[in-house]
Hints:
Elements: E1 48-50, E2 59-61, E3 73-84, E4 89-90, E5 93-97, E6 104-113, E7 117-126, E8 135-137, H1 146-152, E9 154-158, E10 165-169, E11 174-178, E12 182-191, E13 198-209, E14 216-217, E15 219-225, E16 229-230, E17 234-242, H2 245-253, E18 260-267, E19 272-281, E20 288-293, E21 302-309, E22 313-324, E23 330-331, E24 341-347, E25 351-356, E26 361-366, E27 369-375, E28 377-381, H3 392-396, H4 430-442, H5 464-470, H6 491-497, H7 522-533
Parallel strand pairs: 11-14, 15-25, 17-27
Antiparallel strand pairs: 1-20, 2-21, 3-13, 4-12, 5-8, 5-12, 6-10, 6-11, 6-13, 7-9, 7-12, 15-24, 16-23, 17-22, 18-21, 18-24, 19-20, 19-22, 25-28, 26-27
Helix pairs in contact: 4-7
Protein name: Cytochrome c domain-containing protein
Region (Disordered): 27-75
Amino acid sequence: MMGSMDWNGFVGPIVALGFLGSVACGxxxxxxxxxxxxxEVSPTQTSTDEDTDTDAGEDTDTDxxxxxGVETHPVNHSFGTYALxxxxxxxxxxxxxxxxxxxxxxxxxTLSNEGYFHHSNWFVVPEDVFEGPDGYFDCEARGFxxxxxxxxxxxxxxxxxxxxxxxxxxxxxxxxxxxxxHKVIGATHMLNVGPAPIETELFMGLEFIHxxxxxxxxxxxxxxxFDLDIPAQSEAxxxxxxxxxxxxxxxxxxxxxxxKLHYVLPxxxxxxxxxxxxxxxxxxxxxxxxxxxxxxGDANGLTFDPPIDLSDITGLDFTCGYDNWRxxxxxxxxxxxxMCVMLGLAExxxxxxxxxxxxxxxxxxxxxxxxxxxxxxxIVSAPNPAQGPPTQAxxxxxxxxxxxxxxxxxxxxxxxxxxxNAAPAIEPTLDNVATVIFEQSCAFNACHGQSNPAAGxxxxxxxxxxxxxxxxxxxxxxxxxxxxxxxxxxxxxQRVAECEPQSGEGVSVTHMPLNAPILLSDPSVAxxxxxxxxxxxx
Length: 538
């Protein structure tokens, strides 16, 4: 089904978590690679990026650190600090005016932050739209919408869910064009679920190349499954069947599909645990080009080098999977709801948006996972005229770079042990511990929820107090998960208070939440410590 262009909600905001990293869940009860035993406070097997080779060539992760073949010229920028009150959730926009007198061509885009940025979407637009000073601003006050930004300019990048540092680097010569007199605007989503105020800072780095080295201008290729209704206490997968895409694209553009797919980045929230993308027809030897299982706080974008040639494909399928451990159904939305979106960057004559809005039906069950399918709506539009290739004068002339760019991109923060002298910001009760720590940071992606909890430790459902006192610690036999009055001898406290906790036998294990580069905030850990020290009362 064809329709008018609507890019609203492009890779929308996510549910927030109570820590500065993220948790990865795998098979509950399986040993962690560096633990040598079963984990207790988080899942015990990390999620994986499964890079699938196709006839198009070998896939390359975006964060390999390898230098591109063409010479790049970095320009970095700090958007400044942003203060968040306890438990504050905000979605401000933020702007960087490059003051570029000529077009520039970005081979790579790096986003880096100091935490609390759970997701962000980025666009390039003319300087005279959404007018106002650089820095953070209220999106609605300037009339900013993501659909308008996309149609007036183009998509620049998106942040993987909760990643600290992430580089979107495409094949040599394949670039995002920033025309003369354009600026960068990001739509961000931040949340402080802790009981203390914080400050955080956001950075962007752009790596420009000379116009003579440009071989392709990339545009967005978006997939979205809006019609989500995830049953309570169930695993489910939703597959979009888009078998008519090839014909619909040809009807709109007058040519068969001509896409060369350079980059993909899936997006879902805390219940999401699976994404796959596959194509039919064309010259592909393997129809599935991307598959991702589980969730982590790493950069999950994938660059194809060389790009995947989708010429003459007839259709495509994409799937999002979820483990809804909650006792209520979950639909599409922000907060505690879910999303299913994929940002792609492609070289093609037409911009492509494919979505499922209605008509989803259950089609069966496989390996205990309920299977749903829905029909696709396809929208195709010509790119903005400003997104043309470099002129011959640009290719023959000297390299132009915008002025400024004196910021230094920060590294991922180093883990520091909890300060035992820190005080909790709220009363140390079990209810507060459950709300601030367990619900926000431990049940994420069903790790320690009530449906198949990791290592058998359910930190959500009724009867929590008894389970905390009686749970058998598999990673350190003989240890108490919670020893009332003695936090230092409570395995739960050790795992969240130390960067490299050790079992009673001196074996180093991972801190929790798993995959978070740093610990929970000192006031949050102090909340758990003081509750245990006071006797771990119900």
